[in-house]
Amino acid sequence: MKILVPIKRVPDPALKTKVKDNVIDLSAANWIINPFDEYALETALRLLENGETKAKEGEIVVVTIGGEDAGTQLRRALAMGADRAIRVEAVDASLDAHVVMSVLAAIYAQEKPDLVLMGKQAVDGDAGQVGQLLAGVLGLPQATFAGNIELAADKASLLVGREVDAGVEYKRVGFPSVVTVDLRIVAPKSVKNGVTPDSFTYHDEPRIPSMKGQMDAKKKPLEVKALADYTTATPMVKETTVTLPPPRTAGQIVPDVATLVKKLVEEAKAL
């Protein structure tokens, strides 16, 4: 099985981002793999490997769209266990969900993977559109917001548990298909492939690359392509300005519930 995993370089959401001159100031940002994309890569590894022995059958190709600095995140993905990488040279201003989808559609046509496995959204833009757009354009079955995945015994389909408002909805998708993953996909027993023993338990987070993995990553193929090699699409969405919300007023301490309810009704107009 071949799995294509798109990843994005994003500012670490754990660090406070500042706004300067109506734009987000990223001069001091710490860049990481988008967490949901890292979950997708971990899911791909768990689908293809024996968790106990780490023997892996199949290929994982990671792709990102960005500048030279984004190669750092690709090397981390290779160190985690991906087999090869593609970086499409571009600047963020030339990208939106439509352009990213167009690039991935072209790469899909070249690579012909059995599965496109990706994060449900990027934590910087939070649009959550690329997976759905890609499946629609390619005419592929899709399952979004996956919290658990089970590979069928004949390895011809996936049973995907989707996180929805009412709980979990199960869908079976054949190959090729597009699946986007949610947070719970990295729970210890969320991915089943029929190879990893039931007695084996994963950690509840993506793996940390080992020293050997980091050394091996330096030898793995990392191909650099131009944006024009894949698409002539231009962004349909443009960021014009960024403004912070107005500062909050100081809170109040009330003596009892009756006073709280009265203030919520009469002052805050919340009830």
Helix and strand layout, with pairings?
Layout lengths: L1 E5 L2 E3 L6 E3 L2 E3 L5 E3 L1 H14 L10 E7 L5 H10 L3 E6 L7 H15 L3 E5 L10 H9 L3 E10 L5 E8 L2 E8 L2 E5 L9 E2 L18 H7 L4 E5 L30 H10 L5
Parallel strand pairs: 1-6, 1-8, 6-7, 7-14, 8-12, 9-12, 9-13
Antiparallel strand pairs: 2-5, 3-4, 9-10, 10-11
Helix pairs in contact: 2-5, 3-4
Explain this structure.
The chain has 271 residues and is of the alpha/beta class. It contains six helices and 14 strands. It has helices spanning 35-48, 71-80, 97-111, 130-138, 211-217, 257-266; strands at residues 2-6, 9-11, 18-20, 23-25, 31-33, 59-65, 84-89, 115-119, 142-151, 157-164, 167-174, 177-181, 191-192, 222-226. Strands 1, 6, 7, 8, 9, 10, 11, 12, 13 and 14 form a ten-stranded mixed sheet that branches. Strands 2-5 form a two-stranded antiparallel sheet. It has a two-stranded antiparallel ribbon with strand order 3-4. α2 links the parallel β6 and β7. The radius of gyration is 21 Å and the shape is globular. The mean pLDDT is 93.
